[in-house]
Amino acid sequence: MKRFPTGQYGRQRLQFFPAPFRAPLRAFAGLVFPWDGNRVLIADIEGRGWCIPSGRVEPDETSLEAVKREALEEAGAHLADIQYIGCYHISERREVRWADCFVAHVTELVEIGRQDESKGRKLATLEELPAIYHLWNPLTRMVFEHSYEILQRQERYGCR
């Protein structure tokens, strides 16, 4: 199994656990890596900058439902072939939270649903991301590469 480095976001320590691992607790957030060919869709989020669609899981939804909603609200994206790829373990002091991660194909781009939250969207290659992504580090790079490899495997073996 692939080993992912530890990352940092402010005072939070981030670890990524690839599928088939599942968080032992309900995820508080969901993230989706929405690919269109060899480019990933990112949104310019107020207060954060360019990042993949992500957000809190509402009490009445699953993390899968949350990433579909966030992709539409933040990037105006309809998704297909959504697949769970792992989860982040996020810890700060004694608090531990989990965030489920998914990969998907972008099927359609429409008007961004939450203009107050997202200032725009763009498609970027892996090579372009280090210069524009809000939190670029070895962990982020490796999870992006992991998501793209899974999508390529889906296409190669006709799992799409």
Structural features, described:
The radius of gyration is 15 Å and the shape is globular. The protein is of the alpha+beta class. The longest helix has 19 residues. The chain has one domain: Alpha-Beta Complex (Nucleoside Triphosphate Pyrophosphohydrolase). Strands 1, 2, 3, 4, 5, 6, 7, 8 and 9 form a nine-stranded mixed sheet that branches. It is built from three helices and nine strands; from the N terminus they run E-E-E-E-E-E-H-E-E-E-H-H. A hairpin with a 2-residue loop joins strand 3 and strand 4. The mean pLDDT is 94. Pfam families: NUDIX (PF00293). InterPro entries: NUDIX_hydrolase-like_dom_sf (IPR015797), NUDIX_hydrolase_CS (IPR020084), NUDIX_hydrolase_dom (IPR000086).
Low-pLDDT stretches are none
- Helix segment tally: 3
Number of strands: 9
Oligomeric nature of the chains: single chain
CATH topology: Nucleoside Triphosphate Pyrophosphohydrolase
Under the CATH scheme, which architecture would be assigned?
Answer: Alpha-Beta Complex
User: Hey, roughly how much beta strand do the residues contain?
Assistant: 35-45%
Q: What's the gyration radius in Å? A: 15 Å
What overall geometry do the principal axes of the alpha carbons give? globular
Biggest sheet record: 9 strands, mixed
Average pLDDT rating: 94
GO molecular function, one term: hydrolase activity
Family: Belongs to the Nudix hydrolase family.
Protein name: Nucleoside triphosphatase YtkD
InterPro entries: NUDIX_hydrolase-like_dom_sf (IPR015797), NUDIX_hydrolase_CS (IPR020084), NUDIX_hydrolase_dom (IPR000086)
